[in-house]
Every structure is written in structure tokens, then in C-alpha cells.
Design brief:
Number of strands: 7
Strand content: 15-25%
Number of helices: 1
Distance between the termini: 65 Å
Strand order of the largest sheet: 3-2-4
Structural class: alpha+beta
Radius of gyration: 22 Å
Largest sheet: 3 strands, antiparallel
Amino acid sequence: MNCIRKIRFAASLLCISFLTVDLWAVTPTRAVSGVMDFSASKILPDKAMGLDGEWECWWKRFVSPKEIEAVKPDGLLRLPSTWEDFVCRDGCHAGSHGYATFHLRVFLPHWLTKSELGFLLPDQSNAYRIFVNGALV
């Protein structure tokens, strides 16, 4: 009888731990080919989500949000990193000096509202502009 209680208790703890892990898990996601898809992720309140992965890159060009769909990128740059090793599709090498446009299309869960979103940017020693849905933020 005592053995059955221990087995039930252990089975209950096991079920609770699986449910807890599932409820609080955040699906790890990396950008692939300029797309980051959080739409099926379990995003937690006050949880930072990284935007690491392959971002579209236009080397030595500013591509406005209105032009972004019409202009083919020079390649994909895995971020976070430096662009020193970036090689354009046409073979140009970025080197250590220059400028670029980076673009990432992000899909979010339908229930998430934009009032719940924010950016946490590390200190930048360079100038930058960030656009969200075509608007400068």
C-alpha cells in the first residue's frame, strides 16, 4: 500500500513538472533568410527575445522601408557579429569600414499587441535608425 502511494506521488510530480516545463518554455527561434517567426512561440511577459540569426543586408546602401521589397539584398549577415567577413552576392568584401541597411521580418503571435513590445539595444558607438512597420521609432 505504501509503495503504491509513493508511485502515485512520483507520477504526480512527474506530470506537474512536465506541465510546468511546457507552460514556461520559450521556443528558441533564430532568424533564417531574413525572417524571424515567433508566431508559434510561447512568449512570456517581461521576457527578452533575441533577434539573432540571418538578417538581410544591403552593403553601402540605405534602403528605405518603401523600397525594401523591391531591392534585392546583397546577402545575409548572421547577427550579432561584425560585418568584416561579410561577402556580397556579387563578391564584394565589406571590410571593417562602411555602412549598411539591415532588415528582418518578424512574425509575432496574434494575441500580442504593439503596446507590449519594446527594444533593448546595447550601447552603440555608431549612428543608426530603426524602422518598425515602415515608421521611424
